[in-house]
Amino acid sequence: MPWYQLDDPHDARLDELARQYNLHPLHVEDARCEDESVKVDSGLTYTFAVFKPVYLKPDPDAPSEQMPTFTTVDVFAGKDFLITIVDPACPATNDALERARRDGDDEHPARLLYLILDTIVDHYFPAIDHFDNRIDQLEDAVFDRPSPEVLAQIFAIKRELIDLRRVLVNTRDACLHLQRDPNTIIDTEHQLYIRDTYDHVVRLLDSVETQRDLLNNTLDIYLTSVSNRTNEVMKVLTVLGTIALPALAISGIYGMNLKGLPFEDSPHGALFVAFLTITCTVLLLYTLRRMKWL
Predict the structure, then answer these.
(1) Which fold has domain 3-230?
(2) With CB atoms 3.0 to 4.6 Å apart as the test, which of 20, 69, 185, 199 could cross-link to 47 if both were Cys?
């Protein structure tokens, strides 16, 4: 059975193969669409599938960090031919094709399609582990040094998890389609294998939901930490303002042009006022200490 591998969906050979194997124009158009979601569709004599492998690559904004990146794999699997359109720069795609060539059977395109799909799904697990590590780091950062940068990272991971969840949901639906549609290339022998892959996708979705809950909890902890720090600052400012009240009150009274104030004409009046201010401040500090406000 011939296996045609194309690295560019706009390759003119795809048009030749479309005429040779009667590929539907809409499927060819989907294969050339960069934003096409994961799907499985059945033609008259073949099965058309779009998968989304994921791999980790350095973040352009932070080269020391990695970010999940999705690419596209288009597969036309017929009973006597196989056409794959892949991105050769994706390690997950290369692993999937290598495994299909090593463990597959050219006479059973259903097994080749299963091996490609199963390997792509297996590469989602390292991405899940990557998110686990990042969330653990964020939880530590939220307790130690909550900052706007940490908040930005929380929202960035939430967006990445949304993208991953959307791909996984579509992949789950694709696995269901391969199991239930009798017109697909998947025969009875390989439906059990597809069901196993479906179970893996469901487990991945559970992990994503758990991570989203952890992120929401981390966000709540961040907001609580920031609120507590604000309360601590306000408490310190309030205490400082309270301590300054005796001095402000006494200096304000003696600063007015009033007659008959104690020690107004005494040469030791300044010392008395200073002593009275210090005494009132000490008594106030003692009271605050007894009330455990300090």
Answers:
(1) Methane Monooxygenase Hydroxylase; Chain G, domain 1 (1.20.58)
(2) 185
